[in-house]
Design goal:
It is a single chain. It contains 3 helices and no strands. The relative contact order is 0.19. The chain is elongated and about 55 Å long. By secondary structure, it is an all-alpha fold. The chain has helices at residues 8-38, 44-77, 88-108. Helix content is 79%, strand content 0%.
Length: 109
């Protein structure tokens, strides 16, 4: 096993980042559930599609929380640099697509 070279500040920052991703995951999942549960005046198919997209994005954000934390923890333990975030732009695009889907459904309703 590699010697632990971690700086406590880096370890704590990694934990805060993990928790931020978990909050993001919960917010996206709650948004998807709320869209469907509150049933705004939007065409039903578009409503369900948008809600499902938000829930899937929430699941992806939760997976990112775990995977990102593990990789950063491993890399810092081994004294390596931290890899850049790659999933952020995809999640952003997903939120935009889910929101536009909801707006299209509202226009068609």
């Amino acid at each position: 096993m590699a010697e632990d070279h971690r700086n406590p500040q880096v370890a704590l920052a990694n934990e805060r980042t993990f928790l931020a991703w978990i909050r993001t995951s919960l917010a996206l999942t709650a948004t998807g559930a709320a869209i469907v549960a509150l049933a705004p005046p939007v065409h039903r198919g578009w409503l369900l599609a948008s809600g499902a997209m938000f829930v899937v994005l929430g699941i992806v954000a939760g997976a990112q929380a775990w995977v990102g934390w593990r990789h950063t923890d491993r890399d810092t333990r081994m004294g390596r640099g931290v890899a850049p975030l790659r999933i952020g732009p995809y999640l952003t695009a997903g939120v935009i697509v889910a929101t536009v889907t909801l707006l299209i459904g509202a226009v068609l309703a």
